[in-house]
Automatic annotation (TrEMBL):
PANTHER family: TRANSCRIPTION FACTOR PRE, TRANSCRIPTION FACTOR PRE5. The keyword Transcription applies. Pfam families: bHLH_ILI. SUPFAM superfamilies: HLH, helix-loop-helix DNA-binding domain (SSF47459). InterPro entries: bHLH_dom, HLH_DNA-bd_sf, PRE. GO terms for biological process: regulation of DNA-templated transcription; regulation of growth. Keywords: Growth regulation, Transcription, Transcription regulation. It comes from Rhynchospora pubera. Belongs to the bHLH protein family. This is Transcription factor ILI5.
């Protein structure tokens, strides 16, 4: 019977948690004081949600700006080509 490696080791989990800690702005502000893994995962989810909201907002603002630009301007064409 062959078993595939489907589980992750505790050391790998700790390494991933450390990487998340380094990526999150709130966690970086805390410095070396580590939050629990559960709290860090909740913060990660909240941060990702806020990034999604920010992307949506920026997308809406960009759409508005593009729609208000003169269709024939070279700047509008450059922006449109970048968005494709």
């Amino acid at each position: 019977m062959t078993t595939s490696r489907s589980s992750i080791t505790e050391a790998e989990i700790n390494e991933l948690i450390s990487k998340l800690h380094a990526l999150l702005p709130e966690a970086r502000r805390r410095g070396t004081h580590r939050a629990s893994s559960a709290k860090l995962l909740k913060e990660t989810c909240s941060y990702i949600k806020s990034l999604h909201r920010e992307v949506d907002d920026l997308s809406d603002r960009l759409s508005y700006l593009i729609s208000s630009m003169d269709v024939t301007t070279s700047q509008a064409e450059i922006i449109r080509s970048l968005l494709r």
